[in-house]
Amino acid sequence: MKNMFIICASLLFGVSLTAQAANVDFDAKHKACLEKIADDAETAYEDAMIWQSEGGGRRARHCVAMALFALGHPGEAAFRLEKIAKAPDGGSPDMRAGFYAEAAGLWLEAEKPRKAYNAATAGLEIARSDLDLRIARARAYSALGHLDYAVTDLTSALAFHPGNARALRVRAETYFKQNNLKMAKADIEKSLVADGSNIDALLLRGKIKEAMRLDVPAAIQIEK
């Protein structure tokens, strides 16, 4: 009986090691696939499709989606990322939340803010404090004209991630769109304390200062 237990344990341990090795191989191949997109997105897409057909699972499907984005198809890429997040092999809750965050960002790139909102909201049901999801949903709210809701989401993001430069910058932009220049200036200054070299933040600070100097509505500045 004891010998049988040892044999079974050894077999299970061997299977576990084999599974771990397979995951390492898949992770390495996934990384290489994503890196190849920067050099040759079309070849990376073709390779990822072959890998997917050979059983590459969510990693292969993810590389296919990201290659499609690089090839100029953000909407199709976002759709595929959402499918991965919902799939039985979509991975851990953190992985699924990450796929939803990427999908939301790409829906925004595709100028589909309602779809971005839906993806971000689905992700937040999994990971309530996720920074990328909060910011993506805030940007979706802003694109849909719901600026108050955008501020609320960004304030929640900053409650979970105090002093985050990106959340402060996006909230500053949202305040700017509301023509709340005082709050916009306060946020952009805090953002630059956290990340003083961010070009978008520096440009936004310039717009805010110019609007305050001229007393010009922020909406006009945004259009420029």
Alpha-beta content class = mainly alpha
Q: How much is the average pLDDT?
A: 89
Topology as H/E string?
HHHHHHHHHHHH
Biggest beta-sheet profile: none
Radius of gyration: 22 Å
The share of residues in extended strands comes to under 5%
**Through-space gap between termini:** 80 Å
Helix share of residues?
A: over 70%
Count of extended strands: 0
- What would you call the shape? elongated
Our count of helices gives 12
Instruction: List unreliable stretches of 5+ residues.
Output: 1-22
Defining key terms:
224 residues; mainly alpha; 12 helices; 82% helix; 0% strand; elongated; disordered N terminus
Describe the structure.
The structure is a single chain. With 224 residues, the chain is mainly alpha-helical. Helices cover 82% and strands 0% of the residues. It contains 12 helices and no strands. The longest helix is centred in the N-terminal third of the chain and has 38 residues. The N terminus is likely disordered.
Summarize the structure.
This protein is mostly helical and 224 residues long. It has twelve helices and no strands.
Topology of this structure?
Elements: H1 2-39, H2 41-53, H3 57-70, H4 74-86, H5 93-109, H6 113-124, H7 131-143, H8 147-160, H9 165-177, H10 181-194, H11 199-214, H12 218-223
